[in-house]
Write a structure and sequence with these properties.
heterotrimer, A alpha/beta (454), B mainly alpha (358), C mainly alpha (403), A: 454 residues, alpha/beta, Rossmann fold, seven-stranded mixed sheet, five-stranded parallel sheet, 13 helices, globular, disordered N terminus, B: 358 residues, mainly alpha, ABC transporter involved in vitamin B12 uptake, BtuC, two-stranded antiparallel ribbon, two-stranded antiparallel sheet, 4 strands, 69% helix, 6% strand
Chain lengths: 454, 358, 403
Amino acid sequence: MTKTTYSRRRVLKTGAVAGTAGLMMPTYLRAAAHEGFTNAPTGDTVTLGFNVPQTGPYAEEGLDELRAQELAVEHLNGMGDGGMMNTFSSKVLDGTGIMGKKVEFVTGDTQTKSDVARASAQSMIQKDGCIMITGGSSSGVAVAVQGLCQEAGVIFMAGLTHSNDTTGKDRKANGFRHFFNGYMSGAALAPVLVNAYGADRRAYHLTADYNWGWTQQESMAASTGALGWETVENVLTPVGAGDFSSYIAPILNSGADTLVLNHYGGDMVNSLTQAVQFGLKDRQVNGKDFKIIVPLYSELMAKGAGSNIEGVFGSMNWNWQLEDEGTKAFVRSFGEKYGFPPSNAAHTCYTQIMLYADAVTRAGSFNPCAVVEALEDYEFDGMGNGPVLYRGADHQCFKDVLVMEGVASPSGNANMVGYDTLRIVEQTPRAQVEYAPDHPMFAGGALGECNPGA
Amino acid sequence: MDSFILQILNGLDKGSAYALIALGLTLIFGTLGVVNFAHGALFMIGAFCAVTMQRILGLSRTVVDETQTDFLGNPLQMQVPYVQDWFGPVAGAAIQDWAVPLAIFLTIPVMLLVGWGMERGLIKHFYKRPHADQILVTFGLAIVIGEIIKAFYGANPIQTPMPSAFVGTVDLGRYLGLGEGAVAYPTWRLVYFFFSAAIIAAVFAFLQFTTFGMVVRAGMADRETVGMLGIDIDKRFTFMFGLAASVAGLAGMMYAPILSPHYNIGMDFLVLSFVVVVVGGMGSLPGAVLAGFLLGITQSFFSNPAFKGYFVELLRLEGTFAGTVITGLDQIIIYLVAIIILLTRPRGLLGRKGVMED
Amino acid sequence: MLGLNSRDFKLLMIVIFMTLAAPILLNPFPVDSALGESFNAGYPALMQRFVIFGLLAVGFNILFGLTGYLSFGHAAFLGVGSYAAVWMFKLLSYNIVPAMLASVIVAALFAVVIGYVCLRRSGIYFSILTLAFAQMSYALAYSVLSPITNGETGLQVYSDDPQVLMRAGDPIVPHLFGLEMNSSVTWNVGGWQFVFQNGYYLSAICMIIGFYISIRIFRSPFGLMLRAIKSNQTRMSYTGMNTKPYMLAAFVISGMYAGVAGGLMSAMDPLTGAERMFWTASGEIVVMAILGGVGTLIGPVLGAGIIKYLENIISKINSDILHNWFAFMPDWMDNLLVNILYPFVGKGWHLTLGVLFMVVVIFLPGGLVQGGQKLGALFSRKSKSSNSDATTAGTANTNTPAE
């Protein structure tokens, strides 16, 4: 528990002042019509909404996002060491909040359920007057909240969401994604896999039976297939199945020599652990060593799976072990505040807030349409991923992707499991993971017009 | 054939977990007449006993190693477990390795205590209340227990490895003459199956062959008469609650290496185990065990894509919408079987008439 | 009046007043004050939830409160109702009239089928059957039925949907013949701010009508028949009465209420997710009814309000806000109080709910309504005569064994 002493007494005081200064005469107004956009900040503060899972299967990830978000707010308000603000290529942020307005935030619990997440976001918009919503750890929630923000006329800066649809079929003008996606995972992983395991492999896919799983599987099958791998079978597994043994057993005699686990979170921890228990890693099939692949890694999953991830390839958006200045600055300020390195979910949320603040400042307005304009086709650097492009056509960030491999913990420190048990194998250059905005896996969506709300 | 055997093994394994939970539920229902919705939470407490044992054995003192640095450049803080201080590094590590089986020394007293506390503190006051009230209060208790666990252990699944001696698989194929590696089954799952079978046998033997068990069985059949005979049935029933809690707890403890424990597994297992109990017939111990294995095996088979494909082919539904729906059968098969059984056998497989029907 | 006795009429008037004035009553604190930031609940999205879940709980009460059949799968009807409404938005237009009609009809048909099957059994067997159906609906909607439900992402309206009745210039949000659901009027008085939203008032009117119908059902010969079945079904059968049609009617009515609630949810927010049908959602409905007081008229509405308040207001209180409250105290006392309270708020709100629920079930089997009566009786010092007509069902319920 960290206690931020600054906010206590001061907030109480400003609250009292604002209360008495309110209008005394009743006036009838259409919602926020006076400023031209929803929740235009009027006082000397601006409120952001951090909508993350705090209960349910992704709660730990949500809490890590929250840590990074609080850190970002501190940095924006000029406290702490400034983190990646110092390494960011854009220098308009000066530690006085956003455009001189002190940043405040409210938090909400998505429970990783679309309905609840929307209710929480609605309350942030209607009750707390949030001008921007960010966070989340699931694509279903991201798509749902993104749609809501589009309707309400606020900006949505997506947190961890990896489905192609978030910036594909379900892309929205008011929504932006910094995190990478299923297609990029496939494009980055496939060459490394072929290099390490050979072009002649028969892959068996276990796929979480929902939107993210499907797009992830589709991407992996396509990118490995293009390099010669054969997909033997794709089996959909219910989300939260817990015991995957009855899905793993048929693999043993399927003739496959590679298992691709398109699972995330607790499902991945369980399916990987159980696959290892079934001896898949020690098997020999077709004269080759059996291999397991987890396309999407996260530190918290790696922690849950412990030593089972040894020798398992996967991909990540970012990792704290990168050597660039931005990463070092971020890891230092996060590590000093919380005592352990940040996860890539934390990194994406921190970056999204910085990018939003920067876009508002450059646009000189909180108006969502001005922010959209400032973010579209924006190139920046110094946020840990090398040069990044926020593409205007689909609001997806393009940057290097990391290919990771699980290793034994070199430090032997139990607190570092998940953090130092992942090794960066390759930093796949951005050009290799780029695709056209109307690529078949992303087709069918339209950004529409930016919506400033009332 | 080999995949057939594997699916049977899987079904038995899954079924043994269901059966153990259902057995405990039925013991409580049969003896005390209480519908315990917190039974999944007892399973979870058992699993977290394993986690706690692992943590206790992992208790460490911190040694600052000046030669190495951590990720921030500060001197590295090494953790040296006390167990390794006392028993030497090799024996200490071996003890840590055996954390899950050793947790039995923690689980049994904890579960007996929890069971006793629950029965005396809460359930006792609900014997005369409607079943709905029992369901609701224990449901509330399940939420509370889950949240307390979350407050202490976080929401992430916690990896609880089995002893390294049990890592890996047993090549059953070789014993069955099916060729090397054809039927390789994880050792720990076999251990789990035999462990469950032993516990189920022990519970039945206890009820069948001891005086205590006889009295309890008599009490299950007719509580009032047994009470009138001057036997203090209440005390025995309290013990039965503790016993049922221990069965659930041991099931959870041994399951921890298979399914990393998290605060919600209780709820995950609760719904399924209730379906199992109802399919078996409320109040019937053999019914609970039978239904547990039956549903486990059914679920296992319908998870097999080859089997499902065959099923679709059999019904000539390839490529149709109905065919697509059938591929999702593994997600609903337990409920489907439950509905079919309840509609054809009103009181479940082995249920007695008049139990829980009004 | 309206075919109600004076006591019921008074209750109805109170409910009407409370719902219509909710935007003011739920915002007791100035908008910028610390208390207002934490506890004001008078914003449209939450108020909609209050009345929609209130309606759902009222409908559930017709089944559980009157017949004693505990359905553990009621959320399924809510789910199919919402899906039906969104499909109407996709196919026809954003006008909510066809959407609402579709959601009631689909939910009713669904309820007829499920009710016909499940009502062949009673007691816990009935509960498990309803649970099984709801879980199957959830699992299928989440995965293989994705062409119909859009899976985990949730069913929503895309710009390339047919929307055949849509004319140029029609609002592109749910509307009632042009009256947009999400537009509102804001009234600023001093530091206070009250928001009156069309969507909320539509839901509120539906809830009031639903509440009125439920009073009529409770007081009708049909309601009496259902209670007779509850107290002893076997005896009813021996009198030559076929109880089945009555039970099925109650089940279907109850399902239709859930369908309306689902349709309203879609009308307020045109996106529907499968998790609306998960068993925990059904459990939540049960908890609402019990918490407020099952079998009483007002109880379920009260329970729905409390749970939604906890979920949306208490869950947002974090440690900084707690420190704000106690900022006037010495630091050690501040920290102590925060440490005591912290586990129960924010992400620990489920704990608060669990504890509250247990307390209610243990000490107030008639729900909070009974608690209110006990308090009332304590103050008016006439414990026996205060049990009103409207709540006899609630107190009777506690003595009826085995739901």
